[in-house]
Design a protein that fits this description.
single chain; alpha/beta; eight-stranded parallel barrel; 11 helices
Length: 352
């Protein structure tokens, strides 16, 4: 009986709520304009540093909307293998418990021409869609992220067919994923005046839930030393991307790593995380400096008789690149990769 409320008491309560309710917007009380969409952060989780990256994700869960564990590799049209630790339910469940989507990445390192042959064959494309659907059904995943890069340097004579075949493949895959109420992400290299011609941004952006642009490796391990990215390069990338893809679907890939080159040597550069690069800079007592053009940190040091140079990205450098994203109205980012980053980067992404 103590929990029952008399009908007259309810009526009195209703009158009180009416008298004290906050007034709604009227002609004399203009409604506030909607705030701009918040910046969101997604990130790839590397399987080779899985436990540390998972802890990193949980620590910054309030800022993260999607984690893409780097868990699967396509070997052929019908074969998709898991990397060590792929599909670990403790991680999937732990991320879901913090409100984070889990959309694993499927990558590939097929021989030149092999992936293109799959993409230009309707029958083999269909087989591959089925193989990928088996992956997404294997766990409580929220979708799939495709990171297929070996088709990027397709020769002139073949790239139009590979471009169209890949767009058709993504269209079919996304439709099948959406029928399962799953997300469809596509990761691509930057499309500029001289790069990225194999990606049909317009068609991919029309069917995918997100198009992730790997806006890094402007200078890479097999090339000459230089910055990983620049604001000017971001401007060129985003000018083209936003002309072809809805801004809400774009995620700009941000680097949390760098390369350590031997000066004058054509050997492959060493990969360094942002944390490793900064620790090395302190160890060799090199001064901290942002390159005035690229606005990225770099330093040189001696390793025995070898002179080496390191270019990487950190929170201060990223802060100087974010205005390009604001200029083009792109609020969404994706980080390569969890566990690599300057710890201050999270504050930069929250306030930048």
């Amino acid at each position: 009986m103590a929990r029952r409320i008399h009908r007259s008491a309810l009526s009195a309560l209703a009158v009180l709520l009416t008298l004290t309710a906050v007034p709604t917007a009227t002609a004399t009380t203009p409604a506030r304009s909607a705030p701009p969409p918040p910046r969101t952060v997604s990130a790839w989780l590397p399987y080779w540093n899985q436990e540390a990256a998972y802890r990193d994700a949980l620590e910054h869960a309030a800022q993260i909307r999607t984690i893409s564990p780097f868990w699967y590799e396509t070997k052929s049209a019908t074969r998709v293998d898991g990397h060590p630790g792929a599909g670990e339910r403790r991680i999937v469940d732990g991320l879901h418990a913090r409100g984070i989507q889990v959309v694993p990445t499927v990558m590939e390192q097929m021989k030149p021409g092999a992936l293109g042959a799959v993409m230009t064959s309707p029958a083999r494309r269909a087989e591959h869609v089925d193989a990928l659907l088996a992956v997404v059904r294997s766990r409580a995943y929220d979708g799939l992220d495709l990171d297929y890069e070996t088709i990027a340097p397709t020769p002139d004579a073949k790239y139009p067919a590979v471009r169209d075949g890949y767009a058709a493949f993504v269209t079919d895959l996304c439709a099948r994923l959406h029928a399962l109420d799953k997300q469809c992400f596509v990761t691509v290299t930057p499309k500029t005046r001289t790069t990225g011609r194999v990606w049909d941004y317009r068609k991919l952006g029309a069917v995918a839930d997100r198009l992730r642009i790997m806006a890094y490796n402007m200078h890479h391990a097999e090339g000459a030393p230089g910055p990983i990215s620049t604001p000017q390069w971001y401007d060129e990338i985003l000018a083209r991307a936003t002309a072809e893809v809805p801004r809400v679907k774009l995620e700009m890939g941000l680097p949390a790593y760098g390369w350590d080159w031997a000066v004058g040597d054509k050997a492959r550069a060493k990969h360094v995380t942002s944390q490793d690069a900064e620790a090395l800079r302190r160890k060799v007592k090199a001064p901290y400096a942002l390159d005035p053009d690229s606005r990225t940190p770099h330093f040189t040091y001696k390793d025995g008789k070898t002179r080496r140079t390191v270019w990487y990205q950190d929170a201060r450098g990223t802060a100087t690149h974010l205005p390009a994203l604001r200029k083009y109205g792109v609020p969404h980012t994706v980080l390569w990769a969890l566990g690599f980053e300057d710890p201050a980067l999270w504050r930069t992404l929250a306030t930048g």
